[in-house]
């Protein structure tokens, strides 16, 4: 039998789980798409472009994406502080897959919602 510690280490080295868990939330994908469309963007501009995300959540999302090398952060030594974000080459290489996923979701959304409602109705019986 595998100890719990060993199972966790196996999961951590799994490329799919490891990588997708880092950018697989709704805000990370949206940030990547916005940066791909806008180029270099300041933090406050990102807040305006994605109005329904809190600055705290956006900040955490940006840190995660930066830690994984998907975005680059540039801090200018001025007052008030000026910080800009842009996609790296590896971040840019992810964009076509996000676009494909977006197109797939748009194509299949009605069917998925219909199935969800059908299942919810069954569970209410």
UniProtKB/TrEMBL annotation:
The organism is Parabacteroides johnsonii CL02T12C29
> Does this UniProt record's set of keywords contain Transcription regulation?
yes
User: Residues in domain HTH hxlR-type?
Assistant: 14-113
* Pfam families referenced in this protein's UniProt entry, alphabetically: HxlR (PF01638)
- PANTHER family linked to this entry: TRANSCRIPTIONAL REGULATOR, MARR FAMILY, TRANSCRIPTIONAL REGULATORY PROTEIN
InterPro entries referenced in this protein's UniProt entry, alphabetically: HTH_HxlR, WH-like_DNA-bd_sf, WH_DNA-bd_sf
- One Gene Ontology molecular-function label: DNA binding
Q: Which residues form a coiled coil?
A: none
Q: What is this protein called?
A: HTH hxlR-type domain-containing protein
In terms of superkingdom, the source organism counts as: Bacteria
Q: Which UniProt keywords apply?
A: DNA-binding, Transcription, Transcription regulation
């Amino acid at each position: 039998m595998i100890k719990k510690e060993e199972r966790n280490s196996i999961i951590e080295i799994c490329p799919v789980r490891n990588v997708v868990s880092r950018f697989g939330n709704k805000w990370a994908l949206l940030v990547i798409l916005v940066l791909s469309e806008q180029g270099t963007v300041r933090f406050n501009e990102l807040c305006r472009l994605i109005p329904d995300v809190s600055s705290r959540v956006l900040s955490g999302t940006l840190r995660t994406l930066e830690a994984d090398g998907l975005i680059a952060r540039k801090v200018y030594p001025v007052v008030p502080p000026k910080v800009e974000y842009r996609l790296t080459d590896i971040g840019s290489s992810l964009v076509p897959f996000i676009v494909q996923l977006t197109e797939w979701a748009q194509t299949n959304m009605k069917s998925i919602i219909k199935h969800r409602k059908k299942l919810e109705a069954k569970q209410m019986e």
